[in-house]
Design a protein that fits this description.
This protein is of the alpha/beta class. It is built from 20 helices and 7 strands.
Protein backbone atom coordinates (compact mmCIF):
# COMPACT_ATOMS: atom_id res chain seq x y z
CA UNK A 1 0.00 0.00 0.00
CA UNK A 2 1.19 3.49 -0.81
CA UNK A 3 2.04 5.77 2.05
CA UNK A 4 3.38 9.31 2.12
CA UNK A 5 3.72 11.40 5.24
CA UNK A 6 5.43 14.45 3.81
CA UNK A 7 7.36 15.88 0.96
CA UNK A 8 10.90 14.73 0.36
CA UNK A 9 13.62 17.04 1.67
CA UNK A 10 14.51 18.07 -1.88
CA UNK A 11 10.90 19.10 -2.55
CA UNK A 12 10.90 21.20 0.60
CA UNK A 13 14.08 23.02 -0.42
CA UNK A 14 13.35 23.59 -4.12
CA UNK A 15 10.81 26.05 -5.51
CA UNK A 16 8.26 24.54 -7.88
CA UNK A 17 6.14 26.11 -10.57
CA UNK A 18 2.84 27.58 -9.40
CA UNK A 19 -0.35 28.63 -11.14
CA UNK A 20 0.23 32.24 -10.00
CA UNK A 21 3.43 32.60 -12.05
CA UNK A 22 2.47 34.56 -15.15
CA UNK A 23 5.65 33.48 -16.93
CA UNK A 24 4.90 29.77 -16.50
CA UNK A 25 2.74 27.38 -18.54
CA UNK A 26 1.10 26.64 -15.19
CA UNK A 27 -0.63 30.04 -15.42
CA UNK A 28 -2.00 29.25 -18.89
CA UNK A 29 -2.99 25.73 -17.89
CA UNK A 30 -5.10 26.74 -14.90
CA UNK A 31 -6.94 29.52 -16.66
CA UNK A 32 -7.28 28.22 -20.21
CA UNK A 33 -6.66 24.47 -20.53
CA UNK A 34 -8.30 23.01 -17.43
CA UNK A 35 -11.73 24.63 -17.98
CA UNK A 36 -11.75 23.30 -21.55
CA UNK A 37 -10.92 19.80 -20.29
CA UNK A 38 -13.72 19.92 -17.72
CA UNK A 39 -16.15 21.19 -20.36
CA UNK A 40 -15.19 18.26 -22.59
CA UNK A 41 -15.83 15.82 -19.73
CA UNK A 42 -19.23 17.36 -19.03
CA UNK A 43 -20.14 17.17 -22.73
CA UNK A 44 -19.06 13.53 -22.86
CA UNK A 45 -21.36 12.57 -19.98
CA UNK A 46 -24.24 14.48 -21.56
CA UNK A 47 -23.62 12.59 -24.79
CA UNK A 48 -23.56 9.25 -22.97
CA UNK A 49 -26.74 10.09 -21.07
CA UNK A 50 -28.57 11.07 -24.26
CA UNK A 51 -28.47 7.48 -25.54
CA UNK A 52 -29.10 5.80 -22.19
CA UNK A 53 -32.50 4.22 -21.46
CA UNK A 54 -31.78 3.29 -17.82
CA UNK A 55 -33.38 6.02 -15.68
CA UNK A 56 -31.24 5.25 -12.64
CA UNK A 57 -28.07 5.43 -14.69
CA UNK A 58 -29.21 8.72 -16.24
CA UNK A 59 -29.86 10.18 -12.78
CA UNK A 60 -26.45 8.90 -11.64
CA UNK A 61 -24.84 10.55 -14.65
CA UNK A 62 -26.55 13.86 -13.94
CA UNK A 63 -25.08 13.80 -10.43
CA UNK A 64 -21.62 13.41 -11.96
CA UNK A 65 -22.30 16.35 -14.29
CA UNK A 66 -23.29 18.45 -11.28
CA UNK A 67 -20.01 17.58 -9.57
CA UNK A 68 -17.94 18.40 -12.64
CA UNK A 69 -19.84 21.67 -13.17
CA UNK A 70 -19.24 22.69 -9.57
CA UNK A 71 -15.54 21.87 -9.91
CA UNK A 72 -15.31 23.96 -13.08
CA UNK A 73 -17.02 26.90 -11.30
CA UNK A 74 -14.62 26.68 -8.37
CA UNK A 75 -11.66 26.59 -10.73
CA UNK A 76 -12.75 29.53 -12.88
CA UNK A 77 -13.66 31.63 -9.84
CA UNK A 78 -10.39 30.91 -8.03
CA UNK A 79 -11.95 29.19 -5.05
CA UNK A 80 -9.94 27.17 -2.53
CA UNK A 81 -9.19 23.54 -3.26
CA UNK A 82 -11.32 21.36 -0.98
CA UNK A 83 -10.40 18.03 0.60
CA UNK A 84 -11.19 14.97 -1.48
CA UNK A 85 -14.27 13.04 -0.44
CA UNK A 86 -13.39 9.53 0.70
CA UNK A 87 -14.21 7.28 -2.26
CA UNK A 88 -12.63 4.18 -0.75
CA UNK A 89 -9.23 4.49 -2.40
CA UNK A 90 -6.20 4.57 -0.09
CA UNK A 91 -4.62 7.66 -1.66
CA UNK A 92 -7.33 10.08 -0.43
CA UNK A 93 -5.56 10.64 2.89
CA UNK A 94 -2.27 11.48 1.13
CA UNK A 95 -3.93 14.05 -1.12
CA UNK A 96 -5.78 15.65 1.79
CA UNK A 97 -2.72 15.67 4.03
CA UNK A 98 -0.75 17.52 1.39
CA UNK A 99 -3.62 19.92 0.73
CA UNK A 100 -3.73 20.76 4.46
CA UNK A 101 0.01 21.41 4.41
CA UNK A 102 -0.55 23.94 1.60
CA UNK A 103 -3.01 25.85 3.86
CA UNK A 104 -6.12 25.89 1.66
CA UNK A 105 -4.60 27.22 -1.56
CA UNK A 106 -6.74 28.71 -4.32
CA UNK A 107 -6.72 27.41 -7.89
CA UNK A 108 -4.72 30.35 -9.20
CA UNK A 109 -2.06 30.22 -6.47
CA UNK A 110 -1.08 26.60 -5.92
CA UNK A 111 1.85 24.35 -6.91
CA UNK A 112 1.15 23.31 -10.49
CA UNK A 113 2.04 19.62 -10.22
CA UNK A 114 -0.12 19.00 -7.16
CA UNK A 115 -3.05 21.02 -8.51
CA UNK A 116 -3.14 19.24 -11.84
CA UNK A 117 -2.96 15.81 -10.21
CA UNK A 118 -5.63 16.89 -7.71
CA UNK A 119 -7.88 17.99 -10.58
CA UNK A 120 -7.97 14.54 -12.16
CA UNK A 121 -8.08 12.74 -8.83
CA UNK A 122 -11.07 14.81 -7.76
CA UNK A 123 -12.80 14.15 -11.08
CA UNK A 124 -12.36 10.44 -10.45
CA UNK A 125 -14.19 10.66 -7.10
CA UNK A 126 -17.44 11.57 -8.88
CA UNK A 127 -17.32 8.32 -10.82
CA UNK A 128 -16.02 6.17 -7.93
CA UNK A 129 -18.93 7.27 -5.74
CA UNK A 130 -21.52 6.57 -8.42
CA UNK A 131 -23.47 3.34 -8.83
CA UNK A 132 -23.45 2.93 -12.61
CA UNK A 133 -20.36 4.84 -13.80
CA UNK A 134 -17.53 3.54 -11.62
CA UNK A 135 -15.49 2.08 -14.47
CA UNK A 136 -16.43 4.75 -17.02
CA UNK A 137 -13.52 6.55 -18.73
CA UNK A 138 -14.77 10.02 -19.59
CA UNK A 139 -11.85 10.46 -21.99
CA UNK A 140 -12.14 7.12 -23.85
CA UNK A 141 -14.10 8.61 -26.74
CA UNK A 142 -11.34 11.17 -27.41
CA UNK A 143 -8.61 8.55 -27.20
CA UNK A 144 -10.27 6.36 -29.83
CA UNK A 145 -11.05 9.30 -32.09
CA UNK A 146 -7.45 10.47 -32.09
CA UNK A 147 -6.16 6.94 -32.76
CA UNK A 148 -8.45 6.67 -35.79
CA UNK A 149 -7.15 10.06 -36.97
CA UNK A 150 -3.60 8.66 -36.76
CA UNK A 151 -4.40 6.14 -39.50
CA UNK A 152 -1.61 7.05 -41.99
CA UNK A 153 1.13 6.67 -39.37
CA UNK A 154 -0.47 3.50 -37.96
CA UNK A 155 -0.54 1.85 -41.39
CA UNK A 156 3.01 2.95 -42.21
CA UNK A 157 4.40 1.56 -38.96
CA UNK A 158 2.35 -1.65 -39.20
CA UNK A 159 3.91 -2.44 -42.57
CA UNK A 160 7.44 -1.76 -41.33
CA UNK A 161 6.85 -3.68 -38.11
CA UNK A 162 5.65 -6.80 -39.90
CA UNK A 163 8.69 -6.76 -42.18
CA UNK A 164 11.11 -6.14 -39.30
CA UNK A 165 9.72 -8.75 -36.91
CA UNK A 166 9.56 -11.34 -39.68
CA UNK A 167 13.21 -10.73 -40.49
CA UNK A 168 14.24 -10.94 -36.84
CA UNK A 169 12.25 -14.10 -36.23
CA UNK A 170 13.61 -15.79 -39.37
CA UNK A 171 17.19 -14.75 -38.53
CA UNK A 172 17.67 -13.77 -42.18
CA UNK A 173 21.24 -14.55 -43.42
CA UNK A 174 23.43 -11.53 -44.10
CA UNK A 175 26.77 -10.76 -45.72
CA UNK A 176 27.40 -7.87 -43.37
CA UNK A 177 30.42 -7.83 -41.08
CA UNK A 178 29.89 -7.94 -37.30
CA UNK A 179 30.71 -4.23 -37.16
CA UNK A 180 28.13 -3.45 -39.84
CA UNK A 181 25.53 -5.53 -38.03
CA UNK A 182 26.27 -3.71 -34.78
CA UNK A 183 25.91 -0.32 -36.50
CA UNK A 184 22.63 -1.42 -38.06
CA UNK A 185 21.31 -2.60 -34.68
CA UNK A 186 22.23 0.70 -33.06
CA UNK A 187 20.51 2.62 -35.85
CA UNK A 188 17.39 0.50 -35.59
CA UNK A 189 17.26 0.92 -31.81
CA UNK A 190 17.61 4.69 -32.24
CA UNK A 191 14.87 4.81 -34.87
CA UNK A 192 12.48 2.78 -32.72
CA UNK A 193 13.05 4.92 -29.64
CA UNK A 194 12.66 8.15 -31.61
CA UNK A 195 9.37 6.88 -33.04
CA UNK A 196 8.35 6.25 -29.44
CA UNK A 197 9.53 9.72 -28.41
CA UNK A 198 7.55 11.62 -31.02
CA UNK A 199 4.49 9.41 -30.64
CA UNK A 200 3.16 11.71 -27.95
CA UNK A 201 3.03 14.61 -30.41
CA UNK A 202 -0.71 13.98 -30.10
CA UNK A 203 -1.02 14.46 -26.32
CA UNK A 204 -4.79 14.96 -26.01
CA UNK A 205 -4.65 17.32 -23.05
CA UNK A 206 -2.91 19.85 -25.33
CA UNK A 207 -4.94 19.26 -28.51
CA UNK A 208 -7.86 21.63 -28.31
CA UNK A 209 -8.10 22.78 -31.93
CA UNK A 210 -6.13 20.45 -34.21
CA UNK A 211 -7.91 19.18 -37.31
CA UNK A 212 -7.69 15.71 -38.85
CA UNK A 213 -5.00 16.90 -41.28
CA UNK A 214 -3.01 18.61 -38.51
CA UNK A 215 -2.81 15.37 -36.52
CA UNK A 216 -1.59 13.46 -39.58
CA UNK A 217 1.19 15.99 -40.19
CA UNK A 218 2.57 15.38 -36.69
CA UNK A 219 3.29 11.74 -37.59
CA UNK A 220 5.04 9.68 -40.29
CA UNK A 221 8.65 9.02 -41.32
CA UNK A 222 9.34 12.40 -42.97
CA UNK A 223 8.15 14.23 -39.87
CA UNK A 224 10.43 12.13 -37.66
CA UNK A 225 13.48 12.90 -39.80
CA UNK A 226 12.73 16.61 -39.65
CA UNK A 227 12.37 16.44 -35.88
CA UNK A 228 15.73 14.77 -35.14
CA UNK A 229 17.42 18.16 -35.01
CA UNK A 230 15.00 19.16 -32.27
CA UNK A 231 16.25 16.56 -29.78
CA UNK A 232 18.31 18.80 -27.50
CA UNK A 233 19.88 15.98 -25.45
CA UNK A 234 20.13 12.42 -26.76
CA UNK A 235 21.42 9.66 -24.45
CA UNK A 236 20.15 6.76 -26.57
CA UNK A 237 23.71 5.44 -27.16
CA UNK A 238 24.11 4.95 -23.40
CA UNK A 239 20.77 3.17 -23.15
CA UNK A 240 21.65 0.89 -26.06
CA UNK A 241 25.00 -0.01 -24.51
CA UNK A 242 23.22 -0.91 -21.26
CA UNK A 243 20.80 -3.30 -22.96
CA UNK A 244 23.47 -4.76 -25.22
CA UNK A 245 25.81 -5.37 -22.28
CA UNK A 246 23.04 -7.16 -20.39
CA UNK A 247 22.29 -9.29 -23.45
CA UNK A 248 25.95 -10.23 -23.83
CA UNK A 249 26.39 -11.01 -20.14
CA UNK A 250 23.20 -13.03 -19.80
CA UNK A 251 22.08 -14.24 -23.25
CA UNK A 252 19.91 -17.09 -21.96
CA UNK A 253 18.58 -15.51 -18.76
CA UNK A 254 15.68 -13.18 -18.08
CA UNK A 255 16.24 -9.50 -18.76
CA UNK A 256 13.35 -7.20 -17.96
CA UNK A 257 12.61 -3.72 -19.29
CA UNK A 258 9.87 -1.47 -17.87
CA UNK A 259 7.93 1.31 -19.58
CA UNK A 260 6.05 3.83 -17.44
CA UNK A 261 3.41 4.74 -19.99
CA UNK A 262 2.06 8.12 -20.96
CA UNK A 263 -0.68 8.47 -23.57
CA UNK A 264 -3.12 5.97 -25.06
CA UNK A 265 -4.10 5.79 -28.73
CA UNK A 266 -1.28 6.25 -31.21
CA UNK A 267 1.35 6.64 -28.51
CA UNK A 268 0.42 3.32 -26.88
CA UNK A 269 0.56 1.84 -30.37
CA UNK A 270 4.16 3.01 -30.83
CA UNK A 271 5.04 1.90 -27.29
CA UNK A 272 3.95 -1.60 -28.29
CA UNK A 273 5.93 -1.29 -31.52
CA UNK A 274 9.02 -0.58 -29.40
CA UNK A 275 8.22 -3.38 -26.93
CA UNK A 276 7.72 -5.95 -29.68
CA UNK A 277 10.95 -4.91 -31.37
CA UNK A 278 13.00 -5.09 -28.15
CA UNK A 279 11.72 -8.61 -27.48
CA UNK A 280 12.26 -9.80 -31.04
CA UNK A 281 15.77 -8.33 -31.13
CA UNK A 282 16.71 -10.02 -27.86
CA UNK A 283 17.41 -6.72 -26.10
CA UNK A 284 14.87 -7.77 -23.46
CA UNK A 285 13.05 -10.99 -22.60
CA UNK A 286 10.16 -9.36 -20.73
CA UNK A 287 8.49 -5.96 -21.00
CA UNK A 288 6.41 -4.62 -18.10
CA UNK A 289 4.01 -1.79 -18.96
CA UNK A 290 2.93 0.57 -16.17
CA UNK A 291 -0.43 2.27 -16.89
CA UNK A 292 -2.48 4.58 -14.67
CA UNK A 293 -5.27 3.29 -12.43
CA UNK A 294 -7.79 6.09 -13.07
CA UNK A 295 -8.58 8.39 -16.04
CA UNK A 296 -5.63 10.76 -15.91
CA UNK A 297 -4.46 13.86 -17.78
CA UNK A 298 -7.05 13.14 -20.51
CA UNK A 299 -5.07 10.70 -22.61
CA UNK A 300 -3.02 8.59 -20.20
CA UNK A 301 -3.13 4.81 -20.61
CA UNK A 302 -5.47 2.72 -18.46
CA UNK A 303 -5.37 -1.10 -18.46
CA UNK A 304 -8.58 -1.07 -20.49
CA UNK A 305 -6.88 0.97 -23.22
CA UNK A 306 -4.51 -1.92 -23.91
CA UNK A 307 -7.45 -4.27 -24.42
CA UNK A 308 -9.29 -1.67 -26.52
CA UNK A 309 -6.30 -1.25 -28.81
CA UNK A 310 -5.94 -4.99 -29.36
CA UNK A 311 -9.68 -5.30 -29.99
CA UNK A 312 -9.48 -2.51 -32.56
CA UNK A 313 -6.60 -4.19 -34.35
CA UNK A 314 -8.49 -7.50 -34.33
CA UNK A 315 -11.09 -5.95 -36.64
CA UNK A 316 -9.34 -3.14 -38.54
CA UNK A 317 -12.00 -2.85 -41.25
CA UNK A 318 -14.62 -2.00 -38.63
CA UNK A 319 -12.23 0.41 -36.93
CA UNK A 320 -11.48 2.38 -40.09
CA UNK A 321 -14.97 2.30 -41.54
CA UNK A 322 -16.27 4.29 -38.57
CA UNK A 323 -15.84 8.07 -38.97
CA UNK A 324 -13.93 9.61 -36.08
CA UNK A 325 -14.97 12.82 -34.38
CA UNK A 326 -12.27 14.51 -36.47
CA UNK A 327 -14.36 13.76 -39.57
CA UNK A 328 -17.61 15.02 -38.12
CA UNK A 329 -19.10 18.00 -39.90
CA UNK A 330 -17.28 17.20 -43.15
CA UNK A 331 -18.24 15.31 -46.26
CA UNK A 332 -15.09 13.24 -46.05
CA UNK A 333 -15.81 9.54 -45.54
CA UNK A 334 -12.96 7.25 -44.48
CA UNK A 335 -11.54 5.26 -47.38
CA UNK A 336 -11.57 1.47 -46.96
CA UNK A 337 -8.26 -0.16 -46.07
CA UNK A 338 -6.67 -2.70 -48.41
CA UNK A 339 -6.33 -6.43 -47.87
CA UNK A 340 -2.59 -5.96 -47.40
CA UNK A 341 -3.15 -3.31 -44.70
CA UNK A 342 -5.61 -5.63 -42.94
CA UNK A 343 -2.99 -8.39 -43.02
CA UNK A 344 -0.33 -6.10 -41.57
CA UNK A 345 -2.58 -4.90 -38.74
CA UNK A 346 -3.67 -8.47 -38.06
CA UNK A 347 0.00 -9.43 -37.77
CA UNK A 348 0.40 -6.83 -35.02
CA UNK A 349 -2.67 -8.11 -33.21
CA UNK A 350 -1.46 -11.72 -33.34
CA UNK A 351 2.11 -10.86 -32.34
CA UNK A 352 1.19 -8.62 -29.41
CA UNK A 353 -1.55 -10.98 -28.21
CA UNK A 354 0.88 -13.87 -28.24
CA UNK A 355 3.50 -11.88 -26.31
CA UNK A 356 0.87 -10.96 -23.73
CA UNK A 357 -0.45 -14.53 -23.41
CA UNK A 358 3.07 -15.91 -22.98
CA UNK A 359 3.94 -13.42 -20.24
CA UNK A 360 6.57 -11.51 -22.21
CA UNK A 361 4.39 -8.41 -22.30
CA UNK A 362 2.63 -7.67 -19.02
CA UNK A 363 0.63 -4.81 -17.51
CA UNK A 364 1.20 -3.69 -13.93
CA UNK A 365 -0.76 -0.64 -12.65
CA UNK A 366 0.07 1.00 -9.32
CA UNK A 367 -1.63 3.83 -7.41
CA UNK A 368 1.74 5.56 -7.04
CA UNK A 369 1.60 6.71 -10.66
CA UNK A 370 -1.48 8.83 -9.87
CA UNK A 371 -0.21 10.31 -6.61
CA UNK A 372 -0.01 14.06 -6.17
CA UNK A 373 3.74 14.47 -5.82
CA UNK A 374 7.06 13.77 -7.47
CA UNK A 375 8.85 10.47 -8.04
CA UNK A 376 11.47 11.54 -5.52
CA UNK A 377 9.02 10.05 -2.98
CA UNK A 378 9.10 6.57 -4.53
CA UNK A 379 11.45 4.86 -2.01
CA UNK A 380 9.32 5.89 0.98
CA UNK A 381 5.85 6.19 -0.58
CA UNK A 382 5.84 2.94 -2.55
CA UNK A 383 8.74 0.79 -1.31
CA UNK A 384 7.43 -2.41 -2.92
CA UNK A 385 7.25 -0.72 -6.34
CA UNK A 386 10.69 0.78 -5.78
CA UNK A 387 12.20 -2.63 -5.05
CA UNK A 388 10.40 -4.13 -8.03
CA UNK A 389 11.81 -1.53 -10.44
CA UNK A 390 15.32 -2.33 -9.23
CA UNK A 391 14.88 -5.70 -10.92
CA UNK A 392 14.63 -4.07 -14.33
CA UNK A 393 17.57 -3.54 -16.67
CA UNK A 394 16.09 -0.22 -17.74
CA UNK A 395 12.98 1.79 -16.82
CA UNK A 396 11.72 4.04 -19.61
CA UNK A 397 9.60 6.99 -18.49
CA UNK A 398 7.42 8.31 -21.29
CA UNK A 399 6.18 11.83 -21.76
CA UNK A 400 6.03 15.23 -20.16
CA UNK A 401 4.24 14.50 -16.88
CA UNK A 402 6.57 11.62 -16.01
CA UNK A 403 9.50 13.97 -16.67
CA UNK A 404 8.00 16.67 -14.47
CA UNK A 405 7.52 14.11 -11.69
CA UNK A 406 11.04 12.73 -12.12
CA UNK A 407 12.52 16.22 -11.74
CA UNK A 408 10.08 17.35 -9.03
CA UNK A 409 8.61 19.96 -11.41
CA UNK A 410 11.19 22.19 -9.77
CA UNK A 411 12.57 25.48 -11.05
CA UNK A 412 15.96 23.98 -11.81
CA UNK A 413 18.58 25.90 -13.78
CA UNK A 414 18.50 24.26 -17.21
CA UNK A 415 22.16 23.24 -16.94
CA UNK A 416 21.66 21.08 -13.84
CA UNK A 417 22.49 17.44 -14.74
CA UNK A 418 19.54 15.10 -15.21
CA UNK A 419 21.09 12.69 -12.69
CA UNK A 420 20.96 15.43 -10.04
CA UNK A 421 17.45 16.63 -10.86
CA UNK A 422 15.83 13.21 -10.46
CA UNK A 423 16.90 13.04 -6.81
CA UNK A 424 16.29 9.67 -5.16
CA UNK A 425 15.82 8.08 -8.59
CA UNK A 426 19.37 9.02 -9.53
CA UNK A 427 22.84 7.62 -8.73
CA UNK A 428 22.75 4.88 -6.09
CA UNK A 429 19.01 4.29 -6.50
CA UNK A 430 19.48 0.89 -8.11
CA UNK A 431 17.25 1.97 -11.00
CA UNK A 432 18.39 2.79 -14.52
CA UNK A 433 16.23 5.58 -15.90
CA UNK A 434 15.64 6.68 -19.48
CA UNK A 435 13.29 9.64 -20.02
CA UNK A 436 11.72 10.08 -23.46
CA UNK A 437 10.15 13.51 -23.30
CA UNK A 438 8.82 16.07 -25.75
CA UNK A 439 8.84 19.35 -23.83
CA UNK A 440 5.39 20.65 -22.88
CA UNK A 441 6.16 22.36 -19.59
CA UNK A 442 8.73 24.71 -18.09
CA UNK A 443 11.05 22.29 -16.29
CA UNK A 444 14.02 21.25 -18.45
CA UNK A 445 17.43 20.08 -17.22
CA UNK A 446 20.67 18.78 -18.67
CA UNK A 447 21.06 21.45 -21.36
CA UNK A 448 24.38 22.96 -22.35
CA UNK A 449 25.17 26.47 -21.19
CA UNK A 450 23.48 29.08 -23.36
CA UNK A 451 21.00 26.67 -24.97
CA UNK A 452 17.99 27.94 -23.04
CA UNK A 453 18.85 31.51 -23.98
CA UNK A 454 19.28 30.53 -27.66
CA UNK A 455 15.87 28.86 -27.74
CA UNK A 456 14.19 31.74 -25.94
CA UNK A 457 15.63 34.03 -28.61
CA UNK A 458 13.88 32.16 -31.41
CA UNK A 459 10.48 33.27 -32.68
CA UNK A 460 7.86 32.33 -30.09
CA UNK A 461 10.54 31.17 -27.67
CA UNK A 462 9.73 33.63 -24.92
CA UNK A 463 12.39 36.26 -25.56
CA UNK A 464 12.99 38.55 -22.61
CA UNK A 465 9.51 37.99 -21.13
CA UNK A 466 10.93 35.56 -18.57
CA UNK A 467 8.77 32.76 -19.98
CA UNK A 468 10.33 29.59 -21.37
CA UNK A 469 7.72 29.38 -24.14
CA UNK A 470 9.89 27.25 -26.40
CA UNK A 471 9.39 24.39 -23.92
CA UNK A 472 5.59 24.50 -24.04
CA UNK A 473 4.76 23.35 -27.57
CA UNK A 474 6.20 19.83 -27.91
CA UNK A 475 8.51 20.96 -30.72
CA UNK A 476 11.66 20.24 -28.70
CA UNK A 477 12.62 17.04 -26.92
CA UNK A 478 15.14 15.47 -24.56
CA UNK A 479 16.20 11.83 -24.20
CA UNK A 480 18.06 11.54 -20.89
CA UNK A 481 19.63 8.58 -19.13
CA UNK A 482 20.88 7.91 -15.63
CA UNK A 483 22.50 4.68 -14.48
CA UNK A 484 21.32 4.32 -10.90
CA UNK A 485 23.02 0.92 -10.66
CA UNK A 486 26.51 2.32 -11.29
Amino acid sequence: MMKSDCKSLAEELLASYTTSDETSFAYVSARDRWPVILTGAIDDIHRAISTCKDEEKVADGKTIVEGLTKLKYELQHNRSLTPLVDDGRPDVADYNRELAALHSPTWFNVPWLYAECYLYRRMSTFFALSTHWRSYDVFARQKLSTFISSRPAVLELAAKYKMLITQLQNDTPTTQTPEEIEDAEKLLFTEMCEICLWGNATDLSLLTALTYDDIQKLQGADARKAQEKNILVNHLPEAYRTLKAAQTANPKGERRLDIVLDNAGFELFVDLILAGYLLAAGLATQIVLHPKSIPWFVSDVLPADFASLLNALADPRALYSTPSDSHSGTDRAPAPISDQEVAELSFLFNHWSTLHQEGQLTIRPNLFWTSGGSYWRLPLSAPALYEDLKGSELVIFKGDLNYRKLTGDAMWPTTVPFSTAIGSMGPGSGIRTLALRTCKADTVVGLTKGEDERLKGMEGGGGDTGARKWAWSGKWAVIQYCDGKA
